[in-house]
Amino acid sequence: MIKKTVTALLLAMSLGVQAQGVIDEVIWVVGDEAILRSEVEEERLRAQYEGQTISGDPYCVIPEQLAVQKLFLHQAIIDSVEANESSVSHQVDMRLNYYINQIGSKEKMEEYFRKPTTEIREEMMTTVRNQMIIQQMQQKLTSDIKPTPADIRRYYNSLPLDSLPMMPAQVEVQILSFEPPVPVEETERIKQRLREFTERVQNGTADFGMLARLYSEDTESAKRGGELGFVGRGQLVTEFADVAFNLNDPKRVSRIVQTEYGYHIIQLIEKKGERINCRHILLRPRISATDKVNAIERLDSIRQLIASDSIQFEQAVIRYSQDKNTAMNAGLMINPNTGGSKFEYQDLAPEIAKQIYSLNEGEVSQPFVMMDQTKNREVCAIVRVKKKTDVHRANLTDDFQTIKSMLEQKLSGEFIHNWILKKQKTTYVQISPEWQGCDFEYPGWIH
């Protein structure tokens, strides 16, 4: 998803270079904001390149879409809605770092866009800032839309059966997991390796970035020589942030830092106010086959206690689980994509999906080893199927939140549509004569 979005942004900026060849002029004015012919051409080229279908004349549809955005931005000024500049800057820094990584270097990026980095960054800052402001403005306008359960039931009952979405097979899963203990000798081996890296960097016999590419187990940052890009303190785990933000000399290497992900050494690249760019090398202790076997046997004993009703799964989670994300929630896993407890099978870790596929509700799996995607290390686990739902048409019993979201989207869309119609009447709009002969979605542009 991120790669697709960034690719689209790269394309948009590239097309912006092409659109600069258009003889420019102001074609619309909305409030104090102008819409240029080149903006419309840029959007048309992007849509054409991406294969997007524009329903209607693009020289009518696109300027109207831009005009609607101006209405929200105009209202945001009145309501003092502003983007968080730290968030804007963070997103832009991430995108710039990605561009540089994809294209090869900062110089190649500037050559590709035919602009200096400072200009690319400013354009991106404006785009991201406006996107955030428009989103916040829409959320503010629709914040009071909160349908009651009675509203949701009436809405559901008013829908034709064939208009209800088909819901995929879903499952709710509880998990009990813990990490096999790491021997002291393995921890010392990891630390000694990191001490050797530190010594090589500081005596000038090795480059930190080169060592990160060769040895760091943070595979994504390793591709960039361990570089994380500009981040704020809150985006880093506490132990890492405390050390990284206290670094001042880019030529020095930090002490060894232990986090939930493993052991790190860090090198400062640059500080900008409350954000920092640094490199790191991550090494993780290895768990021996014997330790895994012992952990599996321990979990099997717990599973047998559950099967004999000597202990409930929820009680076993509280007593034994080391998964802090689920331990206080009776082991119930939360889908990060939805915030709810229901998962489609493809959204689960492959090891979990394989275990639960043939289980019935209430059954507990055999112990197994899986990769904790958050920490990127192995854990041992058992899982229980709390509930299974087969493919079905949405209904209030199983899919209340889905029906609620459908109603909220409908009410929000209607509210925004009516708000735009009202806003047109109180906002100065001027359209060049040759751009007025359109069948607009919102007919109030021309008074």
Report a brief summary of the structure.
48% of the residues lie in helices and 16% in strands.
What features would you describe in this structure?
The structure is a single chain. It contains 15 helices and 13 strands. β1 (26-30) and β2 form a beta hairpin. The chain has a 4-stranded antiparallel β-sheet. Strands 5-8-7-6 form a 4-stranded antiparallel β-sheet, sandwiched between helices. It has helices at 2-19, 37-50, 58-78, 85-103, 106-113, 117-141, 149-158, 184-202, 208-215, 219-222, 238-244, 289-307, 313-320, 350-356, 400-426, and strands spanning 26-30, 33-36, 166-167, 170-178, 231-232, 257-259, 262-272, 275-283, 343-344, 368-372, 377-389, 392-393, 429-431. Mean pLDDT is 88; it is low at 1-19. With 447 residues, the chain is of the alpha+beta class.
